[in-house]
Design brief:
Helix content: 40-55%
Strand order of the largest sheet: 1-2-3
Structural class: alpha+beta
Number of helices: 4
Shape: rod-shaped
Radius of gyration: 26 Å
Length: 120
Amino acid sequence: MPYDIGPRVRDRGQVAIEYLGFIPVLLLVALAGVQLGLVAYTAQQAGTAARAGARSASLDQDYQGACHNAVSDWLADGTSCSSADLGDSVRVTAEIDIPSLVPGWDFGRAGRTATMPKDH
């Protein structure tokens, strides 16, 4: 009795086509995960920059330089720091542009503030 291979030949490659349809969804989820990681990393770097800047400002040193040096090189260009004298302490706010993996999308800036007592 001959084998009936008609239906099997037509089904061949169906799973591959289904996977191809699912790849954009997987890529979108992966892209969102990496972007979320970039947002978290930028926020962490802003906190580090604010603490370094506040430490330097409390010692009457260059808080701007300390703030920029505390950030990863690839984030330093989008970093800005400001200082406020609170009398016995100093407050430094650091803000960093959040990098975007998708061109044209703006995720804004991550900002953190640190306050340190002045060294008398």
